[in-house]
Amino acid sequence: MERRSLKRVGALLALLLLLGCGDYSGTAAESGTPDDSGGTPVETDGGGNDAGDDETPASGDDGGGSSNVDLVNGKSLYDAQCRSCHGAQGNGGVGPALNNSTSCPSCASHDTLWVEIRDTMPQQSPSSCDEGCARDVASYIMNNFSTVDAGGSDDGAGDGDGGIGGDDDPVDDSDDGSGDEGGVGSCETDPDTETEEEPAPTEPAEATCAVEFVYRTIWTDGFTADIKISNFSGAEVDGWTLRWTFANGERATQWWSSELSQNGTAVEARPVSYNGRISDNGSVEFGFNGAHSGTAEVPLDLTLEAEGCFLEAGAGGGGSGSSGDDSESPLPCGERPPTPRLLRLQTRWEYERTVAALTGLSGDFAGNFPVEARVIGYDNNAKVAVVTDRHVDEYLTAAEDIAARAVAERRAALLPCDPDSNANCAREFVESFGRRAFRRPLSHQEITQFTDLFDSEISPSFDQGMALAIGAMLSSPAFLYRSEVGNDIGDGAYRLGDYEIASSLSYLLWGSMPDDELLQAAADGALREAAGRLAQAERMLGDERARERFADFAEQWLRTSYLLGSFKDPEIFPALSDEVRRAMVEELSRFVNHVALDSTDGTLDELYTADYVFVNGPLREYYGLPGSNSDTAFSMELAGTTRGGIVALGAVLASHAHSNESSPIKRGVFVRERLLCQELPDPPPDVDTTPPGLDPNLTTRERFAQHTDDPNCASCHQYIDGTGFGLERYDGAGGYRTTENGQLIDDSGELVDREGFNTGTSDGFAGPRQLAQVLATTEAARACAVKQYYRYAYGYAETSADSQALARQQQRFADEGYTLRSLITNLIAADEFILRRDGSGS
Amino acid sequence: MNRHDPTRRRLLKGALAGSLAATPLSALLSRAAQAQSSEVPANLLFVYMPDGCSPDHWHPSGSEFDFALPQMTQPLASVQDDLVFLRGLNMYSGGSTHEGGVRKVLTATHDVSLDVFVGQHYSQQSAHASVHLGVAASHQNGSGYVSYIGQEQPITPEDNPLRAFERLFGTPGEIGDLETRRRLSILDSAQEDLARISAQLGQTEKNKLELHAESLRAVENRVLASADEPVGSCGNPDWNREGWSVPDGYNSYPNYWNRDDQFAEVLRLQMDLSVLALQCGLTRVVSLQLSHPVSPTELQAETGTSQRHHDSSHFSDATLQDFIAWKRWYNEQFAYLVNALKSVDTGSGSLLDNTVVFLCSELGHSSLHNHRDMPFVLAGRGGGLQSGRFLDFRNANSGDGESHSKLLVSLANAAGIPLNSFGYTGHGSGPLQGLY
Fold first, then answer.
1. pTM of the model
2. What whole-number distance in Å separates Cα of residue A134 and Cα of residue A116?
3. Which residues on adjacent β-strands are paired with residue A487?
4. CA–CA gap between residue B329 and residue B49 (Å, rounded)
5. Residues on chain B touching A564 (C-beta within 8 angstroms)
6. Which of A254, A389, A461, A682 has the highest number of chain B CBs within 10 A, making it the mutation to test binding with B?
7. Integer Cα distance of A618 and A621 in angstroms
8. A826 pLDDT tier (thresholds 50, 70, 90)
9. Among A73, A158, A212, A791, which one is least packed by beta carbons within 10 Å?
10. All residues at 6 or more sequence positions from A772 whose CB lies less than 8 Å from its CB, including other chains
């Protein structure tokens, strides 16, 4: 491969400061949306998550300098009081981002920032941070969230250029694609000039240092890189730290003459004992070996922290600078597909259904398989679904069992021929069964491979050969993964093959393999065009399997999957029988499917505000609705004033509550994160998160009101509690109540900043029906529904690379009147459905 | 044609590949089991308990060799001479609260967790690179796992002890028997398919496919080895003497082994199995995840408190005793594990002598949800660890305490891997000073 290098001589730091706070329209808009900025955190299930990697050394031993104390104190104050809302690197969250002038005008300079902090922060207790406190916090922020003094000024921002960081730490490890600088905008691509054309926002200070980053060698999956730091500042430099991020999942594996540490995509290099000092007109060199998965690119965001060292704005323009290009990169020019090429391992849910459809057997086929790790609530994330040796053990055992049963119970149905009279029957079976198992015709090589298993001495009879062939196919990666890798169509784009499209459709709509008709449509090439896919989708949505699948999506979206096994105190909630729980699960499925597939209206609005419910006898009784208490059949009936819509579903309310009481907090977080896609930060460390104890004289609302009273908590909890309070007339098991401890329950609430944190869009409401109405007309809720289905459909946590595709899906959703059916069909009709980009998800 | 004799073909292929055929796995297994002198690298056993502690009631008071145990750890007094209590270790960087804590307790923000890392180092010498057991650990787990095989790629542990035993000890076949040969043939076919897909995809999904290929090889090696001789160095291990089983016809949710009323028994079985796996040389590394963060377990019969574990962990003065009761119960179980390791005679001492057990959790102070002053305890003398001590690191780093990443380095070193840093290095690299 060609040698690639980038010499960057520049006042990198100064440039970053300007990029952070100056007119920097490209990313300002992006980072203004809290749930998008910095990419979607990939957590392993669970609600809580902190994507922010605290890269900053906690003790500034190596920083030196008198102002270091202020920075350390500033960091300490920031971490304790600011970080949970503004993010570890100022990327924002509940609070505005501190790295752009739109969301933080006062971040332009230290002088304006510390005054702002003193006068307004923390939001609910502004007087608690006096001038000294505010100055230290501002210094830390202006010093790129580092305790290593970079500027030498007492305020850490002596040149007045500002010091907003975050640029050097995208805090984005969710997917390699997100950091792909060239990921969007392949139109008129000229990678060589692309970066050179980056306009320098202003004349930077004169350079005093230079960094050269060169790939000495790049081979198929690895490289050797050399780095040289030169000092021509006129004085010796004492101590340095060089940071960058890798855009394509490159990993440093071995290094010399420097201490490297890599955290996600972020790399930090520090000197070893003998090269911390760089004499004037001197330089230090170090290097490392690394691995890459296809691409090794010179990092565009090298930042050097070294006293007296300033880099000049060179060819690169800074990592975030080039992402300004990205967001301008226009649709008309044809962006690259947002989702990466993936192999998607079947989940247990999918495996069960696939085997049933393939063999006609029924049973608990995947019961011993490892449980999937969930990512933002979804069990089908392709990145984390990898095959360990335990998987192989279980796949093998299951395949052997299924094969034996298939031959014993389903031989005639599975054989297209009679082996007694047809000498070619083994081959015909391999072709017909294999085409369904692999969801595509087998190659000649594969046909031979599996047919040979019949002739082997370990298969003395035809039936043994048949079992062996079935066992081998079910153990094959071609069966276990469904392929969404496509074929190269140039410019880093790939188009799915006909059979890949068929599988994408069937697993999305059914969670199972394609049926014969769909495979035939693939064979006919009918799925390449949106119309062909939509015709199949319409057909498939009429099948019962589609209802089961859509209910599965709804359960994962609404996080109700654990309802059946979760503990609820039987002394407090004696009426919540297993029968009622099962009815709640069934209700959710019937309701969402009714709206999506049956209702003439069928909109998101209806999903929120429906005035009907699906209940059977036990659930009717549990909800206190009139009618039979013993009827086991479900019927659709009027909800009365206490039910209707997803927010008032028993399954949702019981799932987002404690075992012994309701939880305004869990429910508020549920609305924020699942319905509005507004991720909340974890509570800061060292805050006692113990819920207030039960008190026979107070309502839950009164007990939890301390969160609103305590200013340190309120800055975040204003977004949570006010929503959850509106659902207080539902107890911890989803039952309806009007009083608690003898007091009438106040279920008024306020949805603060419903369109996004700090948007000034707040609405009061009285009770759950009004909350539902507010949500139904909230743009963020509409956009979120699209995003949640997108996550589920692609098995993938979206990144900034998906923003345009998502925006188009949201627009189409609006164009079609927000019908849930269009949520499904728009995704299938979109070009992105059959396009993928380079860049592995693992 | 040779291809119709997959067993033979596989062995030939192995010979070409070098490593295993040159040194048959069975020989390595036996040797690993036999060669338990004090010089051998330590086995590692990681035990995770949920939801942190009350540091005041967990950590000892006193000096290194003369210390007293408070209420929570008091049940460990009987094995105190086999333990090293650690105080003042903090977990830095990474995420916060339960989810961030469990993600970094064995990773220190490294991509791969230490159990997997060490296991992979010895994968050529063990039937199982690492063994990951749980007790209701992946049942309704919304908060995370301790073991990671790649960046953000957790390994979900096996919660069913019967299935775990089957996987470890299986039913040995014979190399020539039909079942074994058919099984190898299926694996062989899967590897062929995998190789074709890999060749087509090149760099795309390479890591995923390589891991899959490694997993296929590991299983194949196990089938070959078990066909050669009884698994590991143990013929017919004495396990589950009480005959715990899932009742016939049980078909409810949750799975029987995930029920609270089975928790204690399943824990005992999984601890016994952990000991067996090490004793029989099946692996060098076991991790055992007990429940999961935000643990909903209720064990009134065993602990005397009706509070669910996580509920009790948010304690007030009035409810502290419930949390203490929980921790005492867990530590009684841990003491059982230590004694079980101690009772295994390896010919040159006990299994505990060449094992280090790391008892960990994801939080320090449970109510404060912090990662400071973590409840970490080591057991055993593997790698030459001197036990019967209490080490207090609170004064390190000008009173901030010491980073737990250094403890992970020490454990890797004890296991014979001479690395100098593992994950987080913000407080410097190297092992935990004074431990070894």
1. 0.76
2. 8
3. A495
4. 11
5. 253
6. A389
7. 5
8. very high
9. A158
10. A608, A609, A644, A645, A647, A648
